[in-house]
Amino acid sequence: MKLYVYEHCPFCIRARMIFGIKKVPFELGVIMEGDVETPTRMVGRKVVPILQKEEGVYMPESMDIVHYVDELNGAPVIKGECDPLIEAWCKENTRTVFNLAIPRFTRADFKELSTPAAREAYTQREIKAFGDLEALMANSQAFIDTLVDELAKIEPYLRARHPISITDFYLFPVLNSLTIVKGFPYPDYLSDYLDHVATSCKVPLFTDKAL
Questions:
Q1: Which DSSP string do the residues of 58-123 spell out, in sequence order?
Q2: Is 165 left (phi over 0), alpha (psi -120 to 50) or beta?
Q3: Residue 3: helix, strand or coil by DSSP?
Q4: Could you give the CA distance from residue 64 to residue 41 in angstroms, rounded to a whole number?
Q5: Geometric angle at alpha carbon 182, from 20 and 85, rounded to 5°
Q6: Angle between helices 10-22 and 166-176 (to 10 degrees)
Q7: E strand or H helix at 2, and its extent?
């Protein structure tokens, strides 16, 4: 199987997590930003992640990919529903996380941004979605202060040592985006959580690319 992604994309991180948890071998492919033709040929629209199954059929949508891979051996482990508290937290705070992460993603060293044209295509896409990226960068400290307060609300969950669950497939990709922020004041419980899930799922943090 081959999974096509953007390296920076939280939904793609989500899809990658299940391969690590289930120890399923796969090939990782990167689609360039601005490349509309490739994903459209595969699934009819510009979207990632995309899974190419063994039989050559393509599947989009991150959670569909998660459940498909989870069920391959007939013993799925990602069951149930996301913890309502964590689901609500993500809905309330994802935009703030992205206000920090997106301007940095546009500048960071990702394979999908390895040409000037691809980086410009991505930057313009995010300007349309988030507005003035320079202004967001300039306001970083306010976003950081907000998130430090908000993270305290889910400290008990982050401190708990539990098997990876469906809740982590929603929470970890959001929190992982914070690792692109150089100097973010990680509480110990956040650092431990990020390291635990990244190691368990064999997915990368962005600390080596932080800006």
A1: EEE-HHHHHHHHHTTTS-----S---HHHHHHHHHHHHHHHHHHHHHHTTS--GGG-SHHHHHHHH
A2: beta
A3: strand
A4: 19
A5: 55
A6: 130
A7: strand 2-5
Looking at the whole model, is its pTM more than 0.85? yes
Task: In whole angstroms, give the CA distance from residue 70 to residue 90.
Answer: 23
Long-range contacts of 82-88 (CB under 8 A, 24+ apart): 82/166, 82/167, 82/169, 82/170, 83/157, 83/165, 83/167, 85/154, 85/157, 86/154, 86/157, 86/167, 86/170, 86/171, 87/167, 87/170
| Omega prior to 49 cis, within 30 of 0 | yes
Is the confidence at residue 112, as pLDDT, over 90? yes
pLDDT given at position 47:
97
For tokens 């410009």, name the residue. 120
> Distance of alpha carbon 23 from its chain centroid, rounded?
19
The pLDDT tens digits for 4-63 are 999 999 999 999 999 999 999 999 999 999 999 999 999 999 999 999 998 889 999 999
Q: Coil, helix or strand for 193?
A: helix
Encoded tokens for 146: 């907000």
Q: Both tokens of residue 102?
A: 């997106």
Q: Measured between alpha carbons, how far is residue 77 from residues 68, 83, 171 in Å?
A: 12, 16, 17
Q: Is the pLDDT of residue 66 over 90?
A: yes
